[in-house]
Amino acid sequence: MDVIRINGMIKDYNLGKVKVRALCGVDLIIRQGEFVAIMGPSGSGKSTLMHIIGCLDRPSEGSYFLDEQLVSELPKSELSQIRNKKIGFVFQSFNLLPHLNIQKNVELPLMYAGMPMRRRKQKATEILDSVGLLDRLKHKPSELSGGQRQRVAIARAIVNDPSILLADEPTGNLDSQAGGDILEIFERLHKAGNTVIMVTHDAAVAKRADRVIHIMDGQITNGNLAG
Amino acid sequence: MAISLGESLHIGFADIWTRKVRSIVTIIGIILGVMSIMVVLAIVNGMNKSTMDWMQARGGLNKIEVERNWQYDFSKGGKAEFTLKEIDYIKSKIPEAVAINPKVSEFGLELARGEQTFQAQVQGVVPDMTVVDEWDVGKGRFIKDMDVRQFNDVVVLGSRVASTLFGSRNPLGQQVLLKGQISAGGPGGASGMQTLKTQTLTVIGVMQEKKMKAQGGQSAFGDNPLEYMNRRAFIPLSTMIWKVNPALAITSLELRAKDPTSAVALRKKTENIVLNLKHGKRLFQIVSAQEQMQQMKQSSMIFTAIFILIAVISLLVGGIVIMNIMLASIKERTREIGVRLAIGARRRDIFLQFLVQTVMITGLGGVFGIALGFSILNMVGKYLDIQVAASLQMIWVALLVSVGVGLIFGIMPAVRASNLDPVIALREE
User: Fold this and answer.
1) B341, A80: Cβ pair inside 8 Å?
2) Which residue, A57, A78, A208, B81, is the most exposed by fewest CB within 10 angstroms?
């Protein structure tokens, strides 16, 4: 099954008088359960592609099916629910809320999904246990190391059982030891059947993926599936 | 599925708690605004209440008084006096009046018992006085119809008169002497003074003491502004006119209406009757306590309005300050908003989060303001010795106002927060 199917996607940005085309006709298919790395130099359009895949932004033209649902036509108000249920974000800079403890951070997607407090506390605890942070539940993000913070972010990304896990340079702010640990978690999640999409410019990191998609000047140059 | 209001309250409380100092600084304006509303309302209420007490003590809102019109130019002729026949006529025209008390006062007299004397205001009255003034005897009995009919030499003393003349002894059945100077009437009101032939009167009763707490603690009569009533003595109207001073005439009339509402109509009716009786000359002025009360309320309303206006302005300023701080806070928390949007918060959730937070802050300000208001009222009441009346209703008003300020000034920042683009918000450092 195709988790992601993108056809003829174009994204234009209006920067005042100048119109910049960030994506010029992208076709992309990602299958259920794949571990895909997206690589490209800065300015290549990979961030734009990731934002659209993550339903944070909408394409100017073209269609985007996520789980067989045409999300490129959805109004912005419904995209937040798609993000909540189908996408788990992991950011380079972790993006945890600093004044909440890590349990509460992990609970957030469940709260916005409308889950009652007791059940989501329980679920957040289980997920944090699975990434080895059971003894840190009440700690604030600032009391944790970078690797630990990223593990919290991964826990938050997967707590709502999303269709895709979308990671943007997840090891970019980590030393190689911690980065390796994080990649291992991604591999574990992938083996458990999750679809993982990772944006990176580190070839060594990209090597861990099943497939590497290269993007350059708003177009996919290599690594796409045929058809 | 949007998050619930309870969830927003929870987030709001956590946010306020995390930023305690900022929250407190933010709400100072609201605290002061709510506090001043509380204090002003309580002081105005207190003033109205003590005015009311004063009115009540003087016979309540049912009372109507017919008195010499000091604005009238008496050189045009006419005298502000009633004959007994005229009184009977007026009585027959206003059967709806519950009680009527024609009154004659003499100021230059003194009551004596042995060496002890007391300069009292002596009034000639009828039994109806106790009804009109809602003031009864504390001891003995009041003047009865029989006393008026038989010109009895009896007197009912004010409490101060009794205590001065008799101390702690029982004055009932005792005799006092009435002596002094009386005004010699005569045609045209030409007056001189002449010495009264001393009268012996038997004390039949002592009035209840009239007492009221003075506003501001000071008054011409010390701490009891009603003390002048305790310095009166009452004798039958007939005795006053026929035995004490034949030159005296009835110069004032007190009526009691069934209730405050009908008092206004009765006042107008009586005014017409008196005007007719005196051939269109405005020798008397006729006022009802009800209308006086309304006038006083009206003038205090202007005062109230000005203070409320000042309080409202301070609340507006407080609201604008809060709006600015919330806008700054949202700018600072742009990234957080971006993260929340990315993991599934809807615009409505973000809007609610910030609106609820603003309302909680102002609501909290309201609560502090009410508390501060009460402690200030306590101090004001104690040190200035004026009556303040705080009511439960005022607490509701204060709370409602503070929450309302939060709603009004919270909308703009909340809209701005919820309109953030997640991509741009996440890029914010």
Assistant:
1) yes
2) A78
